[in-house]
Amino acid sequence: MMIARTLIAGGGPARWVAGLIAAGLALGLSLPTTVLATEERDSITIGYVNPGRVSDEAPQADAARERLQEEFAPRDEAIVEMQDELRRLEDRLAEQRLTLDQDIQQELQREIVTRRRQIQRQQDAFREDFNMRRNESLGQLQRRILRTVEEFAEENNFDLVVSDGVVFASDAINITDRIIERLRLQYEQQQDNGG
């Protein structure tokens, strides 16, 4: 530890070297337990899954997006129609401002303000409902993916499967394609069974 203190006191690159020494000491202290754990078994099987890719490429994700689109399309179209009506009123007011009676202008302006508020309320409710349903669908998809990964890992005797926070995973341990394929097969079976 005397070396580490001396190097840290020097600052700059010395701090970096001290960090390496400290990390090396910590690694050296933990190596015997790691070796003992691996001596009990011949090998440890580790897999990696890219959750973003699975969520993007799984057919269940596309189906969920389509269901949301179908569910919310009528409300979206109604809001667009309300916006078109508002634009027509605004255009009428702009075109006829000089020829309209003052009372009619004020009435049109009030109508425009009222419709803007209605549209805003409809948009807010739409956005809130859509986000809630999207989060529900995403949660269901994530649970399905997790179950599929767990089943795959158990069937193939994986000791560890990691996902988020991985900086690099070689193709040798990347099981993402196999998980996507399994989800694809599950989806096809579900479709064949009428679900």
Mean pLDDT over the residues: 81
> Which stretches are low in confidence, meaning pLDDT under 50 for 5 or more residues running?
1-39
Distance between the termini: 65 Å
Q: What share of the residues lie within helices?
A: over 70%
Binned strand content: under 5%
According to DSSP, the number of beta strands is: 2
Structural class: mainly alpha
Shape, principal axes of CA atoms: elongated
Radius of gyration: 30 Å
Supply the number of helical segments: 6
Strand order of the largest sheet: 1-2
Largest sheet: 2 strands, parallel
Report the order of strands and helices: HHEHHHEH
Description:
This protein has a two-stranded parallel sheet. With 195 residues, it is mainly α. Residues 1-39 have low confidence and may be disordered. The chain is elongated, with a radius of gyration of 30 Å. The protein has helices at 2-10, 13-39, 51-57, 59-96, 102-155, 176-192; strands at residues 46-48, 160-162. Helix 4 packs antiparallel against helix 5 (102-155). The N and C termini lie far apart (65 Å). Helix content is 78%, strand content 3%.
How do you describe this structure in short?
Helices cover 78% and strands 3% of the residues. With 195 residues, the protein is mainly alpha-helical. Helix 3 packs parallel to helix 6 (176-192) and helix 4 (59-96) runs antiparallel to helix 5 (102-155).
Topology:
Elements: H1 2-10, H2 13-39, E1 46-48, H3 51-57, H4 59-96, H5 102-155, E2 160-162, H6 176-192
Parallel strand pairs: 1-2
Helix pairs in contact: 1-2, 3-6, 4-5
